[in-house]
Amino acid sequence: MSPEVPAVVPPATDLPHRGCFVSFEGGDGAGKSTQRNLLGAWLTGLGHDVVLTREPGGTPLGQVLRDAVLHGEDLDPRTEALLYATDRAHHVHRLVRPALARGAVVVTDRYLDSSVAYQGAARDLGDGEIRDLSLWATRGLLPDLTVLLDLDPAVGAGRRTAAPDRLERESLEFHTRVREHFLALAAQEPARFLVLDATAAPEELHAAVRTRLRPLLPAPAGRAGHPAAVPEERP
Description:
- This protein is α/β, with parallel strands linked by helices.
- It contains eight helices and five strands.
- The protein has a five-stranded parallel sheet, sandwiched between helices.
- Helix 1 packs across helix 8, helix 4 runs antiparallel to helix 5 and helix 4 packs across helix 7.
């Protein structure tokens, strides 16, 4: 049985912007960073101003918070949730909103749906409460498109090449709950989500993302060069 998800109420505090905001979600090993980078290269080729980022760790302060929450001492669930919310508030204020205001396409590896699935559902903190916390922290900013790369957690664990971080060390049951809740969130907001089978070939996934995103894009800025990027996931 799918977990219950609270009814979605469009945030009243979001601010208008000229750009486009895309998030990639899914469990560890699903290929979020790969798809983010492929999308960034395609968008840059079209002439868009592109910002590639991630959560946590999309700003210098965010990298400090990332190290603390993923590689530091053990944390209780509420502290963990508040650290993610702190990173998100700063990330949106300093990086995401300014880029959207100038008409850029911002592509992030994880956003608030990760907090709802991991801390809200799997940590039993309440998905509604965690969603509300993130909406307050970001003044209601939601992505124009959220791509959910769906993958069996056991398969994702098998793709791991580095030592696991705090969240990756959680049980298979924990990660199964995360996956189920991601799918429930996508079912609740089909207009925002694109759900893809992460076992498909990367180029096949990329093509599906391009098809869904193209109608949402602003006019290209015509800027040359490469997209601004942050380090790869799991440094």
